Amino acid sequence: MIGEYFKMAVSSIRSAKLRSALTMFGIIIGVSSVVTIVGLGEGVKQQVSSQVDEISESLIVIRPGKKTEPKAFSLDSLRSFTNSTGSLSEKDWRDTEKVDGVKSAVPVGILSGVASYEGEEYANGNIIASTERLPVLLNQKVEYGQFFTSDEYNRRVAIIGRNIAEDLFKENVPIGKSLQIRGKNYIVQGVFEQQKSGTFAAINVNNSIVVPYEAARGAGGNIQLLQVYVETESEDQVSTVAEGVRETIKKNHAGQEDFTILEKEEALEATNEVFYQLTVFVAGVAFISFIVGGIGIMNIMFATVSERTREIGIRKAIGATNSQILGQFVMEAVVLSIVGGIIGVGFSYLANAIIRVTTDLQPVTTLNVVLIVTGLSVLTGILSGILPAAQASRKDPITSLRTGT
Question: Are strands 223-232 and 259-263 parallel, antiparallel or unpaired?
Fold first, then answer.
């Protein structure tokens, strides 16, 4: 019986191809949007995980603001570890270096200002003040040239990201050229290797200029510490050192713990939480397309029932039951949603392929996501088809045959 319903549904859809295609449009958009967005979120999470796996287990990250546990999804949860009520100072960094068990403490400071070259400004990037251990702790390689050393803290040299090299200097390797920051010249000494998207580092190296901390101080302007990376002397000391750092910074902050200290896995978890919440939020918005698609299917099914009143009357006159009429029209709605879902999944794979080619993002589409979203599209079809199908099944055969309406 189901096979017969399916054949009849396919025949009905083929007889009105354009109308059927327009009806499926909402489902196609909904499925492709959700699968693509969730795939992007999962891909970024996996990229972050792979980067963190390559980083030393002895790493501790200090960030301003007290991390709060989100009670439920909200926009505030996206800022769970970037609370604006806290800040880090240079004294916090210097005192952290003196804590027992600390091998090195590397600041990531943002220097206010805009970089320029031959009169052209680059306003989309960050000017970062740091020390020679930054690329080691971030596991970020310098592709061309070299990073500055401890002997070059006072030299005005800069290591730039790939995007800055291409957009500001119009070339890949502008080694030896000079850019201006707050009226002072900095010689480009190196170019970073392309950084993968989704880094847990909270900075985009591709759009950043890294200069020695002491040289940045000499340029004037404010240096705001975004975070401090702490490397312990051994993995076994991580917890002990973290506690020592916490007590040290609390003393500087009058006993207030308005900062967050994260060990390696905690940093990964905190970053993944942001990506998860953001993915859920955007995917939730995309689910609106399912509602639109369901309404579209319902409208077209009501129109179909009205147009096929005489057919319904004939079928009932020769013995078709209400449940059979109901099944026939529900199946049509389900077939529309299934076909729309399949096309939507195909579009999402195409979108993911384009994203992989044109960006450094690597979306990951899992079978579970495809099955869940396809199941939702089928459920949308069933729910959207029930009311029109019920209307069709309740039609009186004699009235339908006489009026044809």
Answer: unpaired
The answer to whether the predicted template modeling score (pTM) of the entire model surpasses 0.85 is no
Per the structure block, which two tokens stand in for 363? 């979306």
E strand map for 71-125: 102-111, 115-117, 120-122
Contact predicate 71/242, CB 8 Å:
no
**Rounded to whole angstroms, how far apart are CA atoms 216 and 113?**
11
Buried b (16+ CB within 10 A) or exposed e, 103-115: ebbbbbbbbebeb
pLDDT digits (tens, 9 = 90+) for 145-190: 999 998 888 899 999 999 999 999 999 899 999 999 988 899 999 9
pLDDT attached to residue 244: 94
Helix (H, G, I), strand (E, B) or coil at 60: strand
Alpha-helical runs (H) found in 69-150: 90-97, 134-138
Report domain extents, the chain: 2-47+283-403, 87-257
Sequence length of the chain is: 405
What are φ and ψ of residue 323, in 5° steps?
-65, -35
Residue 336 CA to residue 13 CA, distance in Å, equals 8
